[in-house]
């Protein structure tokens, strides 16, 4: 008989269900989570098997009494880097009369476990994804310490991924809870402590297992020493060796199949490109080195993508993408600028943007300054001291900047007070032309439409995105978002399409002619999405604080779109680090290790990574950035008509990088464009 623990059939029924749950916990029956619709769904249903005899239930309750296990006797260590989540889980535990201590990350939890006597904490409830030391690393530490091995560890995360769950269980976790954690889930975590104590005190069972292990050890020792006189002595070792042999045979078969396929592909590429694959000369050494550095990653891409598509077309695309990677795989420092001044030498650049002709670029900072630099002059004399050709100061910290693509001298900025300022750089005036004030909280992002010179959009912490027209003082439309709006971007190919990134782990695509609801929801992120950009008409790129950049294909059927590709290799868990896309398929993002990573759309790994630590030029390597581990890249922006990348970090260092094209002797004329 199956009963739902979420039912309300009186105290007696609740006691029966609780007794059944105790019985299942003691017998090691897995209680499966059913679909959870959110905090307001009324809880998750759990199957409870009540078919066991009443004597077993009484025995379980007696076992609980013998151990003296009560919620008020249990001390739970809660580990979570998100303050709101930590507070909610702690409150739920305290309502159930547990004693609670909290830690902000795995490192702090490890220090608490070290500094307190053994037995202080009876259970650890930890988040999986945390900075400094994540939940899996904390779990590994607890299982490696002799005095902590008996402490149950329960993992929790908002990321319900099978691989993560497997890693947690394989690492020794007792349970994996998907956020939001419910009160019913915390009510029953005492069972894990009870299981540990039961194992520790059940001497006969422990002795039996120990005797089995001793017998197994003797059996293996006998086999390895050649004493195989009696039949069955070598059963375990023989089975193990056979298993390993069969595994190797299977691997050899797979390798033979791959080698055969590669030989066919070599002949196909020779026919397509009209060249011999094994020809080498001095000019191609750099090409070979660049590819070999990513051999393992390319191997995975090749065998997971090529064979899932039409053979010849897929191989052509792979050849084209590999050729791009081989020719463009390194940044070179062109110019270095200090964004600050004597009064504020470390002026963190929050955002930067190139104008429509790449003649100038603008930067904004938290020190309330907006500056415009002459990019054309900078490229003509890259080693000269660079100063802004125009600058102004605002009343509040600035967060974003965007140039108008048609009125070349117009740019807009946004600030922490929720205001948008319009500036005319050509006039020389340092006062804004006008202000737009309707947001009640900080604006994170603004963007001019590339196709409509009068329209722009702003995204704010007040969970709204407002559409504006330069000829009107008030907004022309207001889009309601489910959470804080972190980024907004107009599609450069369709004037009525708008992308919005939100703190609720999703991004949204809107039609500006009908804004009541989004036309598509882009899912897959496990934390807040901080940036969103259109790579082309059909592809949207988003960056989130789970160390991942994702690509979504808008041609996917349905209004809920999963990611088509995930790009990993940079570090981003806390800060706005910037995101910029190039029309040729390059994706640049900052990293919290003070570097910039560049991805190419076809490969899920960085094709190059550059540390922001150079001096005034490539020949002068005096560090401009300190070795402060908290220094991070805070802004990136591609030039619109070249492969120059402007990078700024949290200490006010600006670098102009150039991705040079390496010319090799490959005949690529027959590759598809």
The helical percent reads 25-40%
Give the rounded overall mean pLDDT: 79
> How would you write the strand order of the largest sheet?
2-1-3-4-5
What structural category characterises the helix and strand content? alpha+beta
The rounded distance between the terminal residues' Cα atoms is 64 Å
Characterization of this structure:
It is a single chain. The protein is globular. With 673 residues, it is an alpha+beta fold. The strands form 8 sheets. It has a 5-stranded parallel beta sheet, with helices on both faces. It has a 5-stranded mixed beta sheet with strand order 19-20-21-22-26, with no helix packed on it. 29% of the residues lie in helices and 27% in strands.
Name the descriptors:
single chain, 673 residues, alpha+beta, 5-stranded parallel sheet, 5-stranded mixed sheet, disordered C terminus
Which helices and strands appear, and what pairs or packs with what?
Layout (H helix, E strand, L loop, with lengths): L9 H18 L26 H14 L7 E5 L3 H13 L3 E5 L2 H10 L7 E5 L7 H10 L8 E5 L4 H9 L4 E4 L4 H5 L2 H12 L1 H22 L10 H39 L11 H9 L1 H11 L5 H17 L3 E8 L10 E6 L5 E6 L3 E6 H6 L9 E4 L4 E6 L6 E6 L3 E6 L9 E4 L5 E6 L6 E6 L3 E6 L7 E4 L4 E6 L6 E6 L4 E5 L8 E3 L6 E6 L4 E6 L3 E6 L6 E2 L3 E4 L10 E3 L4 E5 L4 E6 L5 E6 L21 E6 L5 E6 L3 E7 L14
Parallel strand pairs: 1-2, 1-3, 3-4, 4-5, 22-26
Antiparallel strand pairs: 6-34, 7-8, 8-9, 9-10, 11-12, 12-13, 13-14, 15-16, 16-17, 17-18, 19-20, 20-21, 21-22, 23-24, 24-25, 25-27, 28-29, 29-30, 30-31, 32-33, 33-34
Helix pairs in contact: 1-2, 4-5, 10-13, 11-13
């Amino acid at each position: 008989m199956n009963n739902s623990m979420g039912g309300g059939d009186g105290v007696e029924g609740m006691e029966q269900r609780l007794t059944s749950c105790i019985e299942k916990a003691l017998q090691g029956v897995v209680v499966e989570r059913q679909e959870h619709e959110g905090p307001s769904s009324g809880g998750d249903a759990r199957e409870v098997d009540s078919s066991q005899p009443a004597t077993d239930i009484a025995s379980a309750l007696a076992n609980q009494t013998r151990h003296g296990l009560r919620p008020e006797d249990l001390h739970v260590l809660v580990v979570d880097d998100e303050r709101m989540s930590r507070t909610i889980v702690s409150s739920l535990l305290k309502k159930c009369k547990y004693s609670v201590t909290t830690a902000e990350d795995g490192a702090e939890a490890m220090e608490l476990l070290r500094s307190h006597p053994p037995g202080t904490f009876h259970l650890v409830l930890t988040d999986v994804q945390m900075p400094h030391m994540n939940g899996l690393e904390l779990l590994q530490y607890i299982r490696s310490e002799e005095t902590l091995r008996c402490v149950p560890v329960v993992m929790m995360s908002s990321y319900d991924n099978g691989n993560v769950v497997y890693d947690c269980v394989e690492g020794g976790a007792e349970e994996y809870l998907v956020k939001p954690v419910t009160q019913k889930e915390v009510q029953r975590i005492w069972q894990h402590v009870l299981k540990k104590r039961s194992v520790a005190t059940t001497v006969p069972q422990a002795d039996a297992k120990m005797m089995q292990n001793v017998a197994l050890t003797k059996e293996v020792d006998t086999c390895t020493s050649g004493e195989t006189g009696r039949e069955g002595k070598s059963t375990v070792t023989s089975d193990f060796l056979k298993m390993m042999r069969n595994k190797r045979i299977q691997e050899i078969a797979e390798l033979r199949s791959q080698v055969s396929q590669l030989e066919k592909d070599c002949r196909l590429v020779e026919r397509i490109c009209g060249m011999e694959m094994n020809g080498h000369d001095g000019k191609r050494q750099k090409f070979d080195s660049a590819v070999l550095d990513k051999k393992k990653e390319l191997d995975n891409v090749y065998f997971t993508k090529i064979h899932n598509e039409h053979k010849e077309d897929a191989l052509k695309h792979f050849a084209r993408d590999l050729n791009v990677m081989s020719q463009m795989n390194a940044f070179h420092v062109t110019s270095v600028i200090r964004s600050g001044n004597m009064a504020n030498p470390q002026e963190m650049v929050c955002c930067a943007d190139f104008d429509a002709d790449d003649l100038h670029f603008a930067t904004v900072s938290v020190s309330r300054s907006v500056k415009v630099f002459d990019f054309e002059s900078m490229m003509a004399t890259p080693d000269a001291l660079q100063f802004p050709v125009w600058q102004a100061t605002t009343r509040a910290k600035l967060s974003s900047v965007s140039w108008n693509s048609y009125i070349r001298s117009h740019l807009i900025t946004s600030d922490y007070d929720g205001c948008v300022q319009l500036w005319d750089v050509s006039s020389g005036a340092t006062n804004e032309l006008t202000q737009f004030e309707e947001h009640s909280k900080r604006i994170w992002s603004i963007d001019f439409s590339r196709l409509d010179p009068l329209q722009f959009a702003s995204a704010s912490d007040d969970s709204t995105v407002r559409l504006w027209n330069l000829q009107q003082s008030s907004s022309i439309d207001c889009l309601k978002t489910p959470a804080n709006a972190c980024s907004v971007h107009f599609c450069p190919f369709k004037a009525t399409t708008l992308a919005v990134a939100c703190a609720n782990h999703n991004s949204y695509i809107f039609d500006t002619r009908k804004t009541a609801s989004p036309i598509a929801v882009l899912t897959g992120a496990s934390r807040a999405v901080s940036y969103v950009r259109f790579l082309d008409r059909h592809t949207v790129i988003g960056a989130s604080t789970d160390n991942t950049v994702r690509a979504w294909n808008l041609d996917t059927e349905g209004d809920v779109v999963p990611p088509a590709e995930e790009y990993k290799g940079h570090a981003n868990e806390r800060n706005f680090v910037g995101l910029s896309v190039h029309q040729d398929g390059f994706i640049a993002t900052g990293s919290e290790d003070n570097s910039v990573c560049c991805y190419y759309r076809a490969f899920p790994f960085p094709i190059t990574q550059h540390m922001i630590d150079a001096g005034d030029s490539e020949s002068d390597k005096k560090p401009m950035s300190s070795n402060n581990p908290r220094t991070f890249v805070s802004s990136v922006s591609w030039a619109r008509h070249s492969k120059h990348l402007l990078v700024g970090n949290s200490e006010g260092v600006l670098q102009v990088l150039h991705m040079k094209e390496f010319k090799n002797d490959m005949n690529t004329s027959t590759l598809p464009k």
